[in-house]
Amino acid sequence: MEEQALQDSTGLSEANAFEDKPVRFLVIRFSSIGDIVLTTPVVRCLKQQVANAEVHFLTKERFSGLVAHNPYIDKIHVLGDSWDMMIHQLKEEQYDYVIDLHHNIRTLRIRKALKKAKHFSFNKLNMRKWLLTALKINTLPDVHIVDRYLDTLRSFGVVNDGKGLDYFYPEKDKIKDTDLPISHIHGYVGVVIGAALNTKKLPVHKLKELCAAVPFPVVLLGGPEDKENGKEIASVDPVKIYNSCGKFSLNESADLVRRANVIVTHDTGLMHIAAALQKPVISVWGNTVPAFGMGPYYGNANIPSEMVEVKNLWCRPCSKIGYDKCPLGHFKCMEKHNMQAIYELVRAHL
């Protein structure tokens, strides 16, 4: 079942199936930050390579800002409070094709409701991920998730343009020099201290060790939930380390990423935003692994990046997503990271 073609409809090539009339696509990805950023090559290639393509995007309301300024998306729909209203609005659009990049029970319901549209679904490879997390048997293809997303468009003759990820935000969200300490205006190391789940995050004491070792200005990046941890980390050297956590919006934090010389990050949304902004990334991995196909993605751009893992741990990966705390209590996948070695990578990039 898992190895069958991703196309859910006729199996016929859709290339050249239309010439002059507008062709309406609905691309679905509900969450989260990183996953939505990773879909941007799909909407760009679809818009640029399929004649007369009109591209709509369906996501959760709280993530709609991630695609609000994307010039390759013609209209945004949101999964809000009323399911019936959303389905009614989607039916009114009379889509020709649905590109399902989330592929769960809710998207199945949407596809059934839009039964007049042909649909193509992303293969999540859940059984292979289970084999890796549960039995440590890796049968996953050595293919980035971006290319697997793009595979849903192969019937349209769409190919990867090699331009990497996109992240668009308005001029008003760009950081002014006055928003930063004077010592940080001309460059800094961006350190992303947050992540969706704790087993993806370095412990605070390890982050303090890293920031103490870096002899360059540091900006800590994260959301309001990371503010207190950022305060503790910054206490190592309040002049050198600027805690931006909770002070800026996501777009403003993205601009802080853009201004950085190099980004040190966990496996999290800002890692993918950094890649979209063509920044060198040193990614630090805990319970998840790059083998899932979600490392920093640059397309054909030659941007230096490093993926740092504690290898040869029998318990890793323990989940394809993460946990609030280490299931075994020792958290070796993060505790065993060598902060001096990570600092040496930072220094090499600078």
In short:
With 350 residues, this protein is of the alpha/beta class.
Provide key terms for this protein.
11 strands, alpha/beta, five-stranded parallel sheet, six-stranded parallel sheet, 29% helix, Rossmann fold, 350 residues, 12 helices, 15% strand
Q: What can you see in these coordinates?
A:
- The protein contains twelve helices and eleven strands.
- By secondary structure, it is an alpha/beta fold.
- The protein starts with 22 loop residues before the first strand and ends with a helix.
- The strands form two sheets. A six-stranded parallel sheet has the order 8-7-6-9-10-11, with helices on both faces. Strands 3-2-1-4-5 form a five-stranded parallel sheet, sandwiched between helices.
- Helices cover 29% and strands 15% of the residues.
- Helix 10 links the parallel strand 9 and strand 10 (281-284).
- The protein has two domains: 23-156, Glycogen Phosphorylase B (Rossmann fold); 171-349, Glycogen Phosphorylase B (Rossmann fold, 3-Layer(aba) Sandwich).
- The protein has helices spanning 33-37, 40-49, 83-93, 105-113, 126-135, 145-150, 204-213, 227-234, 250-259, 269-276, 332-335, 339-349, and strands at residues 23-28, 53-60, 75-79, 97-100, 118-121, 189-192, 218-221, 241-243, 262-266, 281-284, 305-308.
Question: Topology, please?
Answer:
Layout: E1 23-28, H1 33-37, H2 40-49, E2 53-60, E3 75-79, H3 83-93, E4 97-100, H4 105-113, E5 118-121, H5 126-135, H6 145-150, E6 189-192, H7 204-213, E7 218-221, H8 227-234, E8 241-243, H9 250-259, E9 262-266, H10 269-276, E10 281-284, E11 305-308, H11 332-335, H12 339-349
Parallel strand pairs: 1-2, 1-4, 2-3, 4-5, 6-7, 6-9, 7-8, 9-10, 10-11
Helix pairs in contact: 7-8, 7-12
